[in-house]
Specification:
There is one protein chain. Helices cover 38% and strands 23% of the residues. It is built from three helices and five strands, in the order ββαβαβαβ. The protein has a five-stranded mixed sheet with strand order 1-2-3-4-5, with no helix packed on it. The longest helix is centred in the N-terminal third of the chain and has 16 residues. The protein is globular. The two termini are 20 Å apart.
Length: 95
């Protein structure tokens, strides 16, 4: 996972699926970024075809926070279907 911070914005890029250790790292880093007062998250899902429940639940909780904004980019069809089922596509800008 690569994170580029610019002011109160973080651009996040993944190098693999969000499962196992990558999932743990993602949740830890996201919580750190929120505690650093990052308010805008641009997340690139190019290398993600699977996401586990731990990462997904963290995304749901964070997306429900009214003071945070999210843009999801380059989402695979399988991930898009998951986001559609849980109606996350209604809360987040998906490019």
């Amino acid at each position: 996972m690569n994170i580029e911070k610019k002011g109160k914005t973080a651009d996040i890029f993944f190098s693999r699926d969000l499962t196992g250790e990558a999932s743990n790292e993602f949740v830890k880093k996201m919580n750190e970024l929120v505690s650093e007062d990052i308010k805008r998250f641009n997340i690139d899902f190019t290398s993600v075809s699977h996401i586990d429940s731990y990462s997904l639940s963290n995304i749901i909780v964070l997306c429900d926070k009214p003071d945070l904004e999210f843009t999801f980019r380059k989402i695979s069809r399988s991930i898009a279907k998951i986001f559609d089922v849980i109606k996350l596509n209604k809360q987040v800008l998906i490019e």
